[in-house]
Amino acid sequence: MRTPGVVTRYYLYEATDTSGFVWPVFTLFLLSRGLSFTEIATLSAAMAVLVVVGEVPTGYVGDRIGRRNSLVVGRVAAVASLLGFLVVTTFPGFLALYALWALTFTFASGTEEAWLYETLDDRLDADEFTRVRGRGRAIGSWAMAATMVASGFLYVGNVEWPFLAAAAVGVLSVGVLLTMPEPGGDGERD
After folding, report:
1. What is the pLDDT of residues 39-68, one digit of tens each?
2. Where are the alpha helices (DSSP H) in the chain?
3. Separation CA 39–CA 138 (nearest Å)
4. How would you class 143 by CB atoms within 10 Å of its CB: exposed for 0-12, middle for 13-18, buried for 19 or more?
5. Which residues contact 84 (CB under 8 A, 6 or more apart)?
6. Residue 120 burial by CB count (10 A; 0-12/13-18/19+): exposed, middle or buried?
7. What does the pLDDT look like over 136-162, one tens digit per residue?
8. Which domains, from first to last, does the chain contain?
9. Distance, CA of 72 to CA of 114 (rounded, Å)
10. Distances from the Cα of 62 to the Cαs of 54, 106, 176, in angstroms?
11. CA–CA gap between residue 38 and residue 69 (Å, rounded)
């Protein structure tokens, strides 16, 4: 069987890089875990600050370990935080999970676009970046919409099921990322 081309794998990554299972039910879930609205707002504010503060250090680390590996680290952090939400019950515990979740965003910020552009430049044609990126974002948006709808049904079944589904998709995303090349690699053309 032929390995899917690099663009197809990028589209698979976009389809699996979604938090749609948890976004619609997240506040309800946190309330069910005993947090107050004030604590939930504090967690969101802390995460926003951590994302901004974490941009430079994670960008540096990403430059050192490679673009693909940076995306893998971000997705692993996402899976770990999603699974952590199933066991943590205290505000400090949730704060630690939000810090871990912030890594998801900082390791991916700018890295996805840089990986795609450099990979297209190495293997295909960098002039295709806008078309491929646009199609990838559309695939990601459709996947997000589908998982958001499914989230409500899962949540009604069990408040933890959306987090398990999101973690499973996150593991799939890591698997897809591990099949993707690192830009500047062997120069093989897909």
Report:
1. 999 999 999 999 998 888 877 887 888 889
2. 6-16, 26-32, 37-65, 67-84, 91-108, 111-123, 129-157, 161-179
3. 34
4. middle
5. 93, 96, 97, 100
6. buried
7. 999 999 999 999 999 999 999 999 999
8. 6-179 (1.20.1250.20)
9. 14
10. 12, 10, 18
11. 36
**Region 19-45: what's the mean pLDDT?**
95
| Residue 180: both structure tokens together | 């993707």
- In the structure encoding, which two tokens stand for residue 184, read together? 């500047």
The tokens describing 85, both together, are 């939400």
Q: Are 103 and 58 in contact (CB under 8 A)?
A: yes
Predicted TM-score (pTM) of this structure: 0.87
Better-predicted residue by pLDDT, 110 or 6: 6
In order of 28, 58, 89, the CA distances from 110 in angstroms are 31, 11, 33
Cα–Cα nearest to 113, from 70, 172, 174, 75: 70
Please report how the helices 91-108 and 111-123 are oriented relative to each other, as an axis angle in degrees rounded to 10: 30
Token output for 176: 């897809």
Task: Tell me the CA distances in angstroms from 111 to 39, 115, 126, 173, 182, one per residue in order.
Answer: 31, 6, 16, 15, 12
